Amino acid sequence: MKKIAFLFLLLFAFSTQAQESLSVHSFFRDQEQKPSFDRNKEAAKSKTSVLKDSNKFSFTEKFKRAFLDQYLFEVHEKNVNLYISPVVNFQLGQNWLDSDGPSLFQNTRGLYVKGELLKNFSFCSAFVENQARFSDYETSFIANHGEFYPNAATQQQNGVVSGSGRTKPFKDGGFDYAFAIGSFLYKPLKNLEIRAGNAPAFIGSGYRSLILSDNSYQAPSIDVKYTFLKKWSYGLRRTRLFNLIRKNAYATVEGYYQPKASALHYLTCDINTKITIGFFENTIWTMGDTITEKPNGLYYAPIPFLGLTQSENFSLYGFDATESVGEKVRFYQQLVLSGFDISQMGFQLGVRFYDLLPNSMFQVEYNKVGSNLYDGATPNMSYTHYNLPLAHPKGQGFDELVIRANVSMNRFYGESKTVCYWLKNYKERGLLPMDHESAAIEDMIIHKQFELGYRINPKINFCLFGRAVLRVSDIDPTQLLLHVGLSTNLFNSYNDY
Known about the structure:
By secondary structure, the chain is mainly β.
């Protein structure tokens, strides 16, 4: 079986198609949620433009176009399309309300590659190395989602950066972390997709997702999606997850993490060109506690609701819908349940408006999550991976209002984001995989962010920017963070928790 799996992945590694992409940053998601957006037309137009103009320019002009309008390195042959781009994020910052505090910084270097070979294969991959010193509230969040060593004097150590990686200490109060992600797509039939890798997934049309988000750490997974009767599609996703808690008994240098598995099923229907609805079921399957075990054999069956046969499992059920009105307005909703207690449900209501001003987007979103929505029967079976929530970055026990707006003109852009939280019976460590004492708190948090910049290359969202963040809390000290930087913004890394 292992040899077959290896050959299967090897097949992916040498066969690709350009439709696969890891570019999940909100900048790209905002574009894709515009009712008039057509991914296939945009990709075809971009490729045709490159091929058409490739012989018209001098070397200097070609290099300028590559830096400003394309990936830095592109190859387009008969059966080969390859795209390579550096990944950088250089930032300097300061909390202006703490003049004696240390300076803040981000130093990110990496490489992003995607491409296609033949007609029905695609791949994308990225490797990124980071060193950073974050603000006080970000540092606290990272440290409180660290890994557990049950036998150590300090049980919780290191931490995890949302959407990025597990950390180790760096200089005074800083973090060193890296991550590598990749995905392979194979379409043996027009209506069948097979995807494998460890790239994050995001379900929904909003800024947040209450079903599955790119907030957590990457996880190895395989996805299969089948489209039938033109309007319907059925998909499944199998993922290996981990709790960041070291096992007590081990023969290696360090104990292995506690594993668990996820089995996601979804059924979607395009009612018409304007309305899409979807139904989801995701079950966390146990793989043992002190001794790693394989999940029950029913885990591998492509049938929903089989997780209910095992009392240790945790199941989540979701509904997702989106409706377009004309070419400029999109409404969207989500409803999530983990049982029959309506008070513990989660729901999302949102709307996006496009081009109220030329090249603009305005979004309003409301999220409500019960204080025990994502709790498993035992702490190690909660809806998490690498000690981070699989859905909303804040976890559970809150109401949230998100107001976002952005506008661009000749590559200059401005972005505004306001996030308001009302925490109710909120436990910051409530989803962590250990029995612990975590007092419930009430709090109101306002996170206001404003950014001005110049988008040097829209293709890879390469920006020169200045950013201001004001965070006000009834419990934590007020922070005013100012940053300037140069960044290729390809992936989301949430800090508005």
